User: Fold Flavin-containing monooxygenase from Dipteronia dyeriana.
Amino acid sequence: MDCSREIEGKQAHDPIFINNNNKSKMNHHHNKSSSPPPPCIYVAGPVIVGAGPSGLATAACLKERDIESVVLERSNCIASLWQLKTYNRLSLHLPKQFCELPLMGFPSEFPTYPSKKQFVDYLEAYADKFEIKPRFDQTVLQAVYDSTIRFWRVKCVGMKEGEETEYMCRWLVVATGENAEAVVPEIEGKEDFFGDIRHTSLYKSGEDFRGKKVLVVGCGNSGMEVCLDLCNHNAMPSLVVRDTVHVLPREMLGKSTFGLSMWLLKWLPMQLVDRFLLLVSWLMLGDTARFGLDRPHLGPLQLKNLSGKTPVLDVGTLAKIKSGDIKVCPGIKRLKRYAAEFIDGRLENFDAIILATGYKSNVPIWLKESEMFSEKDGLPRRPFPNGWKGESGLYAVGFTKRGLLGASMDAKKIASDIKRCCEAEAKHHPMTTFTRSLLPATQSSSSN
Ligand SMILES: Cc1cc2nc3c(=O)[nH]c(=O)nc-3n(C[C@H](O)[C@H](O)[C@H](O)COP(=O)(O)OP(=O)(O)OC[C@H]3O[C@@H](n4cnc5c(N)ncnc54)[C@H](O)[C@@H]3O)c2cc1C
Assistant:
């Protein structure tokens, strides 16, 4: 069954339709400029922006309900964050049962924490199974709701200059992720530093830094893991810790800390689970403050719940800090040619700096809407679990600060909602050709 028959009955099986004849119709909506308007593509089903795990999960859940979607992706592959912007030693931070996408589990032979390659292989197999074929090299520059025609207009640019396309759709699913753009902080004297400065999105392996003194800025999961990787490649890392941080063992009492926390939360209040986690962490890791890693006042789960700040799950970094292989430093005051001056006045030489300073959403750059998404942080304004749906057919997947588990929950809700909309519209406006084009083919033809 195919739910994406082309508007005005011209499209057979393709979910999209390039309308070469519509230019004159579109002209009065298009900005008056000297260059001709971009080709306009009507999409009968939803347009999903982003072919990461969230976009793929949504496309699969829609497919299961016989709704074809068009997935637009700025890079040339699926899961570009995982394939292009992560370090080689990365594996899933959480056990696989908390990271699988809807409708298809991980292969049973995969380890508890699949490697980056295994995770990417799984996503490739997922896209194949649900026949998801994203349109690559399509960067969405702007999406705006046109209330006169009640369609979203999604403007994309391709690889070549001037290669612009406009997609028009009834539903727009934002799946560009919480990690769309690297956060690169301003550091005084950055331009004076002679060594290599790079964000973790460009860090692959400690191999490139063998024998070098490297300053890693940021003590989240990535910063901690990059330090460990540098140690394992005989580099000499120092870790800048400006903030308080919860470091927990990845496993406790023979179970994953994440799984155990989820289980305990079923029976106990969050504050009590936090106390338990901190007690076991103290028994297993000792007092982290002794090594320069002060804990926040709020417990790890409460903090995650209130601010979205994820605790660090230790995979061996703490042992290297204890042994002195990784030094802990305070905030940087300024950089000099080959050195960093810290806020405590200490000056130390470094060959390179890795910025493990995180990522941010890019939604405010391209989505011309400010009700659903905050312009400040590019995340949905309504807190979890209500941030997935906006007005006028706008949806968000993967912005819950709850990783792949949150993305899967969003994807299922979005697909059900769009299906319900399709059916309701078809029922209430049975005569319009457009509505008929949204129905599964069998239903559509029976109403003819
Ligand atoms: C190092 C690291 C490890 C992680 N480990 C885990 C883990 O173990 N478990 C877990 O649950 N989560 C983990 N996460 C969280 C992570 O965010 C998710 O795993 C997952 O990648 C989120 O999927 P997503 O599809 O929402 O976003 P992304 O994977 O970031 O995908 C978004 C896609 O949108 C595309 N895009 C962005 N802007 C545009 C645009 N304007 N036009 C077109 N396309 C665009 C991007 O190119 C990208 O392909 C980790 C994150 C990082 C950085």
Q: What stands out?
A: The domain at 184-358 is CATH 3.50.50.60 (FAD/NAD(P)-binding domain). Residues 49-55, 72-75, 79-81, 86, 90, 92-94, 99, 139-140, 175-180, 222, 362, 366, 398, 403-405, 407 surround flavin-adenine dinucleotide (CB under 6 Å).
